[in-house]
Rho GTPase activating protein 27, like
Amino acid sequence: NDSTSVYPSVNEPKNNLPQASVNSSNNNHETAQVTAAGACSSPKEQLPVQEAPSTPSATTGTTADSKVETDGTGGRHYSYNPPTGSTVWPAKSAEPQGLPRSHILEKAGIVNKTKISDNGKRLRKSWSPSWTVLHGGILTFHKDPKSTPAGNKSTQIIPEYTVELRGATINWATKDKSSKKNVLELKTRHGSEYLMQYDTISIITDWVLRFWLSHVTSALAQFLQLCDTLCTTLCTTLCADGRHSTPVSSTESEQGRVRNKLRRFLQRRPTLQSVKERGYIQGKNVFGCPLENLCTRERSTVPSFVDKCIKSVEKRGLDIDGIYRVSGNLAVIQKLRYKVDHEENLDLDDGQWEEIHVITGALKLFFRELPEPLFPFSHFNKFIALQFTSLVWLLVRSLPQPNYDTMKVLFGHLHKVIQFGEKNRMSAQSVAIVFGPTLLRPEVESANITMYMIFQTQIVEFMLKETDKIFQA
């Protein structure tokens, strides 16, 4: 089969993205299957048809000169002529009256990927960069154009793997799966496994968030479809029993008005950020809250969550191998985060938080999600200029009180960690590599990111070795 795929730019308006799939045969041009989703707003619009290699599910009827395809999942009828490649849309009356399916491009970008299992059969790892697209609950990995044979060079991007996320699970990959950093393990319900990796932790973490949002959006769409089906069934039953005197056409018109009102309401709803700015929702989250606001709300200079995590880790033992370097279970860490944001009385001695790497992972996540890092943006260049000098302690003393007190507690704790270096194999340099990019970063990323990473590690390592002098009373 000769299948190609052309995807629109990420910057194109998302509400205009159609989706279609074509599967044609070189030997028989009279046989073709085409499926178009109901993303087109009008049959008169001239929108591009997006092709994908997946096999469509459609009921095909044949006319004299063309194929008439019906999308059984809420699509539209249209005619497709294989020899000429022309597509003809019928009158608007053929368009279904149900709620349209959402075909918004949720995320796209370059990640490193490899497939390690195919329906339970283990495969050899072969890492390669891939343009990856999350769209309508489907994750598509595209082939690297550099891997295309010299004679088949094309400007089109060809899909390599298509993964349905329904029923799939995603977690941080263990060290036995890959020695690379920031690796996600994606398992499908059919037994296939994929690894996704990117060097920047914020980018790979955003993929995790997008997977979760895609799952929620899919569940919401199924719920709305179920409500629509129940409403139609109820109206039909009432009319059949003679309990409703309204003609069927009037009932259908009323259903259409209800759907349109619901659609306009969902499209008109404000964003979470705008609601917070108007004061309707008071943000009381711990994660992602500015350090000064959090300390003011708690009437302290050190966040209580930071204090609880440090005490819990020191209570369980600082001699655990790879402490702060080994990642905890991502799902449990996110569960702990939810508890912290929604419950005032958090007990870290609870059995569900018994793994110490979950506590250390949540503590790192807290500092990573601060809108402004523990080392403020305004002091970034100053710390770089004064590193390895005796003036660092003066710069530390000039920090806002919440930053200074939190930094003092954190570095005092990490200093204890490196004192157990022979047992936990965490030297000052190892701890600095873990915490450097989290605690110290520029406000605007530049082309000197590699040099900045060196400075981040060196500054944190120097402060760990000189903790007693820098934070002395």
Q: What stands out?
A: The domain at 291-470 is CATH 1.10.555.10 (Phosphatidylinositol 3-kinase; Chain A). The chain has 14 helices and 14 strands. The radius of gyration is 28 Å.
